[in-house]
Design a protein that fits this description.
Length: 196
């Protein structure tokens, strides 16, 4: 039993998701330490940036540890066993057809965190002073924002089987007020048939 846990423990580090999370944890710690050590850390907008970075850092650590110790796999198994008894009508609504429940939750969380970190990076950039600490905090904050966005895109692709722009294009194709030629033909024949 112990050897299975240690094999799962170390096998998680071989996945790209784990490597990205380690980079996010290290870079996030560096960014919020730079913000705290700056001369204007008590400035109100920078409190938001500090809070956003610490929140993202803590949530990333929680996700990393839960994945590393197999908690997410247990949660996925629980929900898959619960959804196995659903009817065929509701089968298309379950996440288990496209990916795991925790991966879907992670990609929504990473979407929110990447938005928060983007706003925090803009806040740090807007309040940039002549200090080298602020320049470093600004540069690493933007790098962290990009890293979270890339991680979100990878998680999105794992769940939806498409990259976000491909998915968006597929959703909007022919549905954003533009009708396809067959839809236009059907609408014209339908209105012509109802007027007779």
């Amino acid at each position: 039993m112990q050897s299975q846990r240690s094999a799962g423990f170390w096998s998680y580090f071989q996945q790209p998701n784990a490597r990205m999370q380690v980079a996010e944890i290290v870079l996030g710690l560096l960014v919020w330490c730079l913000i705290v050590s700056g001369p204007y850390a008590r400035h109100y907008p920078l409190r938001y940036a500090l809070g956003a970075h610490i929140t993202a850092w803590i949530l990333t650590i929680i996700i990393f540890l839960s994945s590393m110790f197999g908690i997410t796999a247990r949660i996925n198994d629980f929900f898959k066993s619960r959804s196995a008894g659903t009817s065929e009508d509701n089968a298309s609504l379950t996440v288990s057809n496209t990916g795991s429940y925790m991966t879907a939750l992670e990609y929504v969380l990473y979407m929110i965190l990447s938005g928060l970190l983007l706003i925090a990076s803009v806040t740090i950039t807007a309040n940039l002073s002549g200090s080298k600490v602020w320049f470093a905090a600004c540069a690493f904050s933007w790098l962290l924002s990009v890293l979270y966005e890339i991680h979100f895109c990878i998680l999105f692709r794992n769940v939806e089987s498409h990259w976000p722009l491909q998915w968006l294009y597929g959703c909007c194709k022919g549905r954003c007020g533009k009708k396809t030629s067959t839809e236009n033909y059907e609408r014209i024949t339908e209105t012509a048939g109802s007027s007779q």
